Amino acid sequence: xxxxxxxxxxxxxxxxxxxxxxxxxxxxxxxxxxxxxxxxxxxxxxxxxxxxxxxxxxxxxxxxxxxxxxxxxxxxxxxxxxxxxxxxxxxxxxxxxxxxxxxxxxxxxxxxxxxxxxxxxxxxxxxxxxxxxxxxxxxxxxxxx
Length: 145
Description:
The structure is a single chain. The chain has 145 residues and is an alpha/beta fold. Helix content is 20%, strand content 40%. The protein is built from two helices and eight strands; from the N terminus they run βββαβββαββ. The chain has helices spanning 39-51, 99-114; strands at 2-15, 18-23, 26-32, 55-56, 62-64, 72-77, 119-122, 129-144. Strands 1, 2, 3, 6, 7 and 8 form a six-stranded mixed β-sheet that branches. β4 (55-56) and β5 (62-64) form a beta hairpin. α1 runs parallel beside α2 (99-114).
């Protein structure tokens, strides 16, 4: 499982022009599920995202979590995180889990994050989503298990 975590000032997510989710500040997390991933990997990613200390404290040090600062998380399923373009220019997605197995793990990760007391918003699994975000820093962290 892979997650790209970005600290943001604001993110909006639309499908077919309709606003689906919006966070005022916090983390936008793009989650890729690999073939063979289980709830164990999803729980690990949720715990790491909840605990990442990538917000500045009163001394300007990255020492606070999204929960500490009252931020929200927008969790977006993104199978393309497992795109392999090492052979040619068209990525292969053979490492990405099939949708019928990936979606329950995505939903599990949403619930796990919420269990840490964090407001979690979602994308629409499998949809063509348009995401606008105002990155903060920018701060981008890659998590993988």
